[in-house]
Amino acid sequence: MIRIKKGFYTFSRNENVIGFAFRPFYYGMEYALTLRKIWTQQANPVIMTTSKANAGLREVMKSKVIVHRIDSHAYFGFEYLSFSGLFVPVSLPEKILLDFMYFQADIDPSTRQTLIKESNRKVLRNFADRMGSRYSTQIDSLIDNFMEK
């Protein structure tokens, strides 16, 4: 039996079970890029949760795990994908981009362009509107810059 956090244990060695200890959650940012095969780098699990879990870096099952707390108004934009016989919530490409903005995290320009290219522009603008005018302005600027190239 492996301890994930206080009161949560698992028999599985699959690192994708870690997030279930932080429900409600979804995997986002760098880890979602890896799971969706948008980039080839191996990333540590990044858990996005609305629970009162302490945010930050943890070591769970001999892996480094990053926990981010996200406001409930920004908790959307994910779907369940199957990995190793387990369905896990993973953010959509549109939400990955917005989460990087939400946490003011840097993302390399080529990955940003790939995300914009793979995103549905209508969904991206809709998600940005749900998060607020600041995000709408930033997304419109990114899309305009992408269209110029």
If you had to describe this structure to a student in words, what would you say it looks like?
The chain has one domain: Beta Polymerase, domain 2 (2-Layer Sandwich), CATH 3.30.460. It contains five helices and eight strands; from the N terminus they run βββαβββββαααα. The protein has helices at residues 29-35, 93-102, 109-118, 121-131, 133-148, and strands at residues 2-5, 8-10, 25-27, 46-49, 56-60, 63-69, 78-83, 86-91. A four-stranded mixed β-sheet has the order 3-4-6-5. Strands 1-2 form a two-stranded antiparallel sheet. A hairpin with a 2-residue loop joins β1 and β2 (8-10). α2 (93-102) packs across α3 (109-118) and α4 (121-131) runs antiparallel to α5. The longest helix has 16 residues, at 133-148. It is globular. The termini are far apart.
